[in-house]
Design a protein that fits this description.
With about 100 residues, the protein is mainly β. The protein has no helices and 6 strands.
């Protein structure tokens, strides 16, 4: 186990506080209520988590299944989550995260 920083994707929209994850956004799909042409996303820091292991997850879209690498993390409240690896940054040993 080691410390990590968790990020999430947030929709950039004036006056909007909508958030989404990499799973439910498709900037090319106008039918996607959170994505669509002209929408922009930013990656923002959520906070400190504990990284446990790498894993694998999948996503079903349009009748297809796609596999992707994931990270198994522990949230500060003790809940475990399986998130895409691009949403974490491992903190080097000996470095204290503030």
């Amino acid at each position: 186990m080691r410390d990590a920083i968790l990020y999430e994707y947030r929709l950039i929209d004036e006056g909007s506080s909508d958030t989404g994850t990499v799973f439910d956004m498709d900037p090319e799909d106008p039918e996607d209520s959170e994505g669509g042409p002209g929408k922009k996303w930013e990656k923002v820091e959520v906070g400190r988590v504990t990284f446990h292991a790498f894993g694998v997850n999948y996503d079903e879209s349009n009748g297809n299944i796609g596999m992707y690498s994931s990270a198994i993390i522990e949230m500060p409240d003790g809940m475990l989550e399986n998130v895409p690896v691009e949403l974490i940054q491992l903190v080097p040993d000996g470095v204290t995260y503030q």
